[in-house]
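Exam prep: given the inputs below (a chain plus NAP), describe the expected output before reading on.
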Amino acid sequence: MIVVTGATGNVGRTLVPLLAGAGEEVVAVSRRPHSGELPDGVRYARADVGDSATMRPVLEGAHALFILLGGELNSRGESPDALLEGAVDAGVKRVVLLSSQINSTRPDAVSHARLRKYEAAVRAAGVESVILRPGNFASNAFAWAESVRTQRAVFAPFGEVALPVVDPADIAEVAAAALREDGHAGHTYELTGPEAISPRQQAAVISEALGEDVTFVELTREDAHAHMARFMPEEVVGGTLDILGAPLPAEQAVSPDVERVLHRPARPFGEWVARNLPAFR
Ligand SMILES: NC(=O)c1ccc[n+]([C@@H]2O[C@H](COP(=O)([O-])OP(=O)(O)OC[C@H]3O[C@@H](n4cnc5c(N)ncnc54)[C@H](OP(=O)(O)O)[C@@H]3O)[C@@H](O)[C@H]2O)c1
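Solution:
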């Protein structure tokens, strides 16, 4: 049995059916009840990853655990050791943690200190462990969906700064491989898309997919900060804007790891747009 946290998010909602489709018994975890139908072989459990007492019963009988720290868990909450102890007590032998590329490129970033604690705890737990460090998600473009729908406009900072945004579906596929296959233990995978693409170019891809003009409006860093702070912990906003505005060469480079694990190239941004076009119509 595999327990998947963050089950209803960008990564989890692909990972859960992937695992179930491969014949795994899956427990899908989030705090709010799952809406919609679950695939065969999937059970839903309501629990809080940041509250190990709620996770212990969910982990009973699991051999593998996918940890995703949603929202405020990226900056605060109980010690990661409590969750890992509960997992080991329950019989978990393999843990895959969704972390962030920033822990490779900016290992002292205050914004991601808590994720580094989780990485250390997972490595020290005495289980087979795999750390996934994705760069910027393609799904961050959901933040533009409303303005594209209502004004045919994308409002974003740093219009010309290109990053190799990664499709959450690729992250989910790598996670599924790491959860199911032998040979990944101890690895840290940096996950990016196949090419660097700027916000202005992303707007053009959305425009082309819609078959309609979409205007790009460049925001100042201050305006972008105020907007992002509505749905991200304050500490994480600063670190994220540092990458978006002044990425290091390593953050603009394409990592070979998606292809290394999946034996095919990473999906381009256009594929993510095509799958999610209804959100922008
Ligand atoms: N976006 C990026 O560019 C980027 C880059 C690198 C790394 N990351 C990392 O990727 C992760 C976000 O992945 P995502 O986009 O798939 O997430 P998402 O779409 O924001 O979804 C978060 C998921 O986690 C669940 N969740 C949130 N808090 C929870 C809690 N305390 N207990 C149990 N479940 C909880 C949510 O459901 P409920 O709210 O119902 O619980 C939902 O299922 C974060 O850890 C972030 O640091 C993101």
